[in-house]
Design a protein that fits this description.
Layout (H helix, E strand, L loop, with lengths): L1 H4 L2 E9 L1 E7 L3 E6 L6 E20 L2 E16 L6 E7 L1 H6 L2 E7 L8 E15 L2 E2 L13 E6 L11 E4 L5 E4 L4 E5 L2 E10 L3
Antiparallel strand pairs: 1-8, 1-11, 2-7, 3-6, 4-5, 4-6, 4-7, 8-9, 8-10, 10-14, 11-12, 12-14, 13-14
Length: about 200
């Protein structure tokens, strides 16, 4: 059974600029997210909205908020920078109009600013090289061989190019390079991911 050979536990993170995926509008939406650099917030609604939005968060350690007014539009754009967002408040006009909202980080120039979103925590994996266990050094960045990560197949998530795989026991991090493959081992399927050491 594949899980028996996947004796390490990993966290998998994905880089994205969306920190609130499409969700039903509500008076308050909690969203604790930290962009890579200070960023503005853009909200995209599924239907045109008219009302007031309050974005709550921090800027360089101090609490801050921004009030954005939207008028018959599906887009609401904030211009204030945030280091972290904590919640989005929507007034009763927007809530009663219904629909969904999606929130993204953007720069003041309109470009995307990314954050890291946890895809899965404590997932079994095996980090290997040439079908052998990989001894991961604590220092050094030279990688001679292509390292592989084996992950049991699941329908709850699919690893993608650019995902960061972190070994919980050692805190070593790897980036998935290229599209993962699905292979069969006996009756079990697993993802085979080519990975490289990752250092920010």
């Amino acid at each position: 059974m594949l899980v028996s050979i996947c004796q390490s536990l990993v966290n998998i993170d994905r880089r994205a600029n969306t920190f609130v995926s499409s969700t039903a509008v509500a008076s308050s939406i909690t969203s604790i997210a930290t962009p890579k650099i200070n960023a503005c917030v853009i909200l995209k609604f599924s239907t045109a909205q008219t009302g007031t939005i309050t974005i709550n968060g921090t800027l360089d350690g101090s609490s801050t908020n921004e009030t954005v007014i939207v008028s018959s539009s599906k887009i609401a754009v904030g211009i204030k920078l945030f280091s972290t967002t904590t919640s989005i408040s929507l007034d009763s006009n927007i809530v009663s109009a219904g629909g969904t909202v999606e929130c993204k980080f953007t720069g003041q120039d309109g470009g995307s600013i990314f954050t890291t979103v946890r895809v899965v925590s404590g997932f079994p994996a095996r980090i290997s090289r040439n079908n052998a266990n990989l001894a991961v050094p604590n220092s050094g960045t030279v990688q001679v061989e292509k390292t592989k990560a084996l992950l049991p197949y699941t329908e709850t998530f699919e690893p993608k190019d650019g995902d960061i795989i972190s070994l919980i026991e050692t805190s070593n991090r790897f980036m998935v390079v290229g599209s993962p493959l699905i292979e069969m081992v006996g009756f079990n399927m697993h993802y085979v991911c080519t990975i490289e050491r990752y250092e920010e």
